[in-house]
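Form 12-C: Joint structure prediction
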Amino acid sequence: AQKVTQAQTEISVVEKEDVTLDCVYETRDTTYYLFWYKQPPSGELVFLIRRNSFDEQNEISGRYSWNFQKSTSSFNFTITASQVVDSAVYFCALRTIYNFNKFYFGSGTKLNVKP
Amino acid sequence: KAGVTQTPRYLIKTRGQQVTLSCSPISGHRSVSWYQQTPGQGLQFLFEYFSETQRNKGNFPGRFSGRQFSNSRSEMNVSTLELGDSALYLCASRARGGAPETQYFGPGTRLLVL
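Section 2 - Result
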């Protein structure tokens, strides 16, 4: 069975603090894809990153970085020097190659960045 | 390239009515998926269409149905609306429906059932 767990329901930080959003996934498939999306109050899910199960390299994009560790089945997302515009709900999602037409979403983490 | 568009953006209906939501995928994308998002249940998969065929369906009652046209545009229909159908309905598209492909989402349709 496939499952994504985002244990942090809501996080509040003050601007310029670093924050890490946790994502733990479960799958027995060896080929799978992990995604992070951001959902601002407007509602649209904005794609942030995709990783495949064979690429464990961490990735950095500006203030955003992702730490993929297969040993712990985790795909964590860190925002460095957070800003008020980062306030949103963040979703982690999983798709496997054997069930490629279904996306498994975590329950989301709401991030509040206060000025 | 234009993104995924959904119409209408907001909708108010009463119990027992039916509603049709529309989704236009990114140009060239042939796979369209629908999701329901509520505060209590989170994001739940409704169904996916590819080349006018439904490929997968989530655990929703038969009141929820959809279809896809030859131009890849998709519609979702909910009949005999219930209060619990109030939600944000999101549509997403991807190019050919393959596993590695990123799914791009539209802005959603907020449905309120009174």
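Section 3 - Comments
Chain B touches chain A through 24 residues (CB under 8 Å). Residues 52 and 69 of chain B are 6 Å apart (CA to CA).
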